[in-house]
Specification:
The protein is α/β, with parallel strands linked by helices and about 130 residues long. Helix content is about 25%, strand content about 30%. β2, α2 and β3 form a beta-alpha-beta unit. The longest helix is centred in the middle third of the chain and has 21 residues. The two termini are about 15 Å apart.
């Protein structure tokens, strides 16, 4: 179960790393990307997860930052959560990472982005404890 939870978190968080590093790079989510002015770019992750998910959030953040240091593109920073995990509302300029019981609805995790043009303006990543 822990391995499955870690894989879901890593996959969902990596979806939010979608932005072009160089003009020939193709690692984007439907062309959407975070606007930035320099590399590395820091993605803030709002910690709205329960204690069950804390280690996974920190591991994913550290793995992301190591990847960024290798190619100079991405860092992540865990910050105080800005939403009620049950509602998991987005906060401008960052990813709110939430865990709660969202019900037996067929998903373990869900990623959402809000955009302006091709720029991601805010995002949420929800881990379902149901």
């Amino acid at each position: 179960m822990k391995t499955k939870m870690m894989m879901v978190l890593l996959l969902m968080l990596s979806a939010f790393a979608a932005f072009p590093g160089l003009s020939y790079a193709t690692h984007s989510w439907g062309g959407y990307h975070w606007a930035r002015t320099s590399n590395p770019f820091t993605v803030k992750l709002g910690d709205d997860v329960s204690a069950v998910w804390d280690d996974y959030l920190w591991t994913a953040s550290n793995d992301w930052s190591v990847s960024g240091s290798l190619d100079g593109v991405l860092d992540s920073d865990i910050v105080l959560g800005g939403t009620n995990p049950k509602r998991c509302r987005p906060t401008g300029g960052r990813v709110e990472v939430c865990s709660s019981t969202y019900g037996k609805n067929g998903w373990l995790g869900l990623a959402q982005i809000w955009v302006s043009g091709l720029h991601i303006t805010q995002a949420v990543s929800k881990m379902n404890l149901a």
